[in-house]
Design a protein that fits this description.
Layout (H helix, E strand, L loop, with lengths): L1 E2 L8 H19 L9 H4 L5 H4 L3 H17 L2 E13 L1 E8 L14 H14 L5 E7 L3 E8 L2 H10 L12 H12 L6 E8 L10 H10 L3 E7 L3 E10 L5 E10 L3 H9 L5 E4 L2 H14 L3 E12 L1 H20 L7
Parallel strand pairs: 3-4, 3-6, 6-7, 7-10
Antiparallel strand pairs: 1-2, 2-11, 4-5, 8-9
């Protein structure tokens, strides 16, 4: 509760002064004396109800004046309403799930698990943005369309593994074209593709530059991320031994990222290119993308005040009227 006119409370000082004068006067009257020759008969006399309530009209008037002063100060209750206008972003995350993403040069296990870790953190940090998920190897498909169902997104990221059910290879053009298809009908003012790969295009029916022209035609922005180190590496392969047990072996593989293509994808669409060859660098990439792609939030605050003085005024008037009635009737003093 707040007070619209707190200065009115100073009017209570005269009221307190009147109350003090009355109490002093009443005390003086209580100590008045009258001499009698014998007090025996008077000691048996007890004051009646009217005598006990003789001061009630004055007390009621003082209380009534106090309530009126509180009403003049206008007590109020403030109800604050906050309206948030959020301009969300549509984001499609495109993730390479080719065999080379199993190379164990990033924590906690390999390139894929590192990417999944930071994708989950990225999704968890969004509030009002629709996010979709596209994966690709030798071909591409939409794993999750644009949605605000973040738990569904997070579960799909968690369940994502390298599988032989998809054609092997690295079809960058197919992955990019699939993301463009998901965003082309979006009405969001900001539409973004977050493209992560650790290789270079070596298969697919759509050339990466053709897919890039499609993205530019729809006004999409691409942030391209190259994951992992270039050069000779060891690719883990799982097989069964003579006893039927699953064992891990390694075979040599040469891994290289087409930085020129990824930079062109980013530069020609107004995005940014990032190179993440360590886990810490990949974490920094997602922090930077999170900083670059923030929803526009406008906050408007409205305050509505509810007046609380009417009950004070009503009770004050009622008590004062009661004091007048009692003072002129049952508790009247004098003839």
């Amino acid at each position: 509760m707040s007070w619209h006119s707190p200065w009115a409370l100073w009017l209570g000082l005269p009221l307190l002064l009147l109350l003090t004068i009355w109490l002093v006067h009443r005390r003086h009257r209580l100590h008045s004396s009258l001499q009698f020759s014998a007090l025996g008969p008077l000691s048996q006399v007890r004051p009646g109800l009217r005598a006990r309530l003789a001061s009630l009209p004055l007390v009621l008037k003082l209380v009534a004046l106090g309530l009126v002063i509180l009403a003049l100060a206008r007590p109020q209750r403030a109800d604050v309403a906050v309206q948030r206008n959020v301009e969300g972003i549509d984001i499609v995350i495109v993730l390479d799930i080719s065999d080379s993403m199993l190379i164990e040069d990033m924590e906690p296990e390999n390139r894929l698990e590192a990417a999944k870790l930071f994708i989950r953190d990225f999704i968890a940090g969004r509030v009002s943005d629709r996010i979709g998920l596209v994966v690709f190897a030798g071909e591409a498909y939409t794993r999750v369309p644009l949605t605000l169902d973040y738990p569904l997104l997070l579960q799909n990221v968690e369940d994502m593994v390298i599988t032989r059910n998809i054609k092997m290879g690295t079809a960058i053009g197919m992955g990019l074209a699939t993301a463009v298809a998901r965003l082309k009908d979006s009405t969001a003012k900001s539409r973004v593709i977050l493209f992560l790969t650790d290789g270079e295009n070596n298969t697919g029916t759509i050339d990466p530059l053709t897919a890039l022209e499609m993205a530019k035609g729809y006004g999409l922005r691409i942030h391209a991320v190259g994951i992992g180190r270039d050069g000779q590496a060891q690719l883990p392969i799982y097989m069964q031994d003579a006893r039927g047990q699953r064992v891990k072996r390694y075979r040599p593989i040469y891994s290289q990222i087409n930085e020129e293509l990824l930079k062109r994808m980013a530069n020609e669409t107004g995005g940014a290119f990032f190179r993440a060859n360590t886990t810490d660098a990949l974490a920094g990439v997602f922090r930077e993308v999170d900083r670059l792609e923030r929803s526009k939030v406008e906050v408007s605050e409205f305050t509505r005040y509810a007046e609380l003085f009417p009950p004070y005024l009503a009770w004050g008037a009622a008590l004062y009227a009661l004091a007048l009635v009692l003072g002129q009737s049952w508790l009247r003093r004098g003839p």
